[in-house]
Amino acid sequence: MKRETELSSDRVQVVLGFIKDLKEFKLDSLSQALGIPEATLASTLEDMRQNGIIDFTVKEEEGYELTERGARYKAEGLPETKLTSLLKEKGALSIDEVKDELGDEANAAISWAIKKGYVSLKKEDGKTTIYFRKASAETLDDLISAKRAEALQRGIVRKKTIKTYHLVSAKAVEQPRLPPLTKLTHDDIVSGRWKQGLKPYDLSALPQPSRGGKKNFFQEFLSWVREILEDMGFQESLGPYVETEFWNFDALFQAQDHPAREMHDVLYIEGKGKINDEDLIRRVAREHELGWGYSWSLDKASSLVLRSQNTAVSARFLAEHKERPIKMYSVDRVFRKDEIDQKHHIEFYQSEGIVVDKSLSLADLIGFLTQFARQLGFDEVRFYPSYFPFTEPSIEGYVKHPVLGWMEALPGGVFRPEVTRTLGTDEPVLAWGIGISRLAMAKFGLNDIRFLYSPDVDFLIEEEL
To answer: Would you state the pLDDT for residue 398?
Structure first.
């Protein structure tokens, strides 16, 4: 049986015949020309050098290659280009019609076409329609050459190490020597292959370091956050990841035609949920119709989404618990249809919480957030006025990142009366939605939120709380 590490005479002749008159060649190009996998070809070249057949130097540089998605886009065109061509041909289309035409590429097509100004959205009679604005002349090659970061972000290309071989010498061979054995088998002994020589052992070589398991540094940070909040007198509450729009938006007095509820901001799920409290439904409907001046839809409120904010947990808790005072928190995942970059992710952790008692004010909220930040080691905290749909007054708290500078991570406010009335309380409700992932970035000195979800074992072993 032939060993996989043996130097094939036929392969040597093929490779040598192709490269002997070249001054330099790229490994990937040679691999394509000879139909030999890159790893196999690189191993063959190294064996040929070890056996004195050729000599070369290698230069490595960062390059890029198309992914399967990129190859498909190259053959069929970019999704946003397909969308503009479709709209130009058929006129305005609804989101569902675009999905029927473009299938799995519909969401990407709409999102990027909006971002690049190719299309516009308009909501009419409760239905979102997409209109053509201008044609896209951008090709995949244009995108890769001019917007490499976008191509990487969209999974169109991936980074690749390009190896360029500079040939120093090459000589013709008829019967190349086999490389020395690194492992002795029964077949090697029977065939006499062992007589070709064994690779000498380097007794001074150190083994790979042994590293035991450890808790994920980000999970340790989340546990620390929970300990701090519980030491401050809060109790934890959890809610479902798949939530109704009723709890995610309507119970928080967020209008049903609010831009944040569009498909390009929220991850919708097929099907409908059920809201069991008829009295609460009537109170929410009344507040929306009086406050926003439109006919509130229970069907819309029953739509399912991946929870985009943990304030839905606070709303559920406040509606179900009538005892006072209340100090509740939640540290859990939320999901948004964001473009993944340094500071944004489609999935991240948020700490939501409420305090309910008589005579509370915005000053109490600022005091709590300041104390919480200091417990985490942030001595400098800045607060500025802000706006959120369901709190008034509202603030944003900033902590200092060692690399990125001041970073917004501590938003909060006092629930509006339209929220507290529907949820059954006439007392002030302090609420916040702390960006735990951003606080973790600042605490660990990370300049990219994606490091919090890194699968890199070396990084995870080294990073500590």
So the answer is: 94
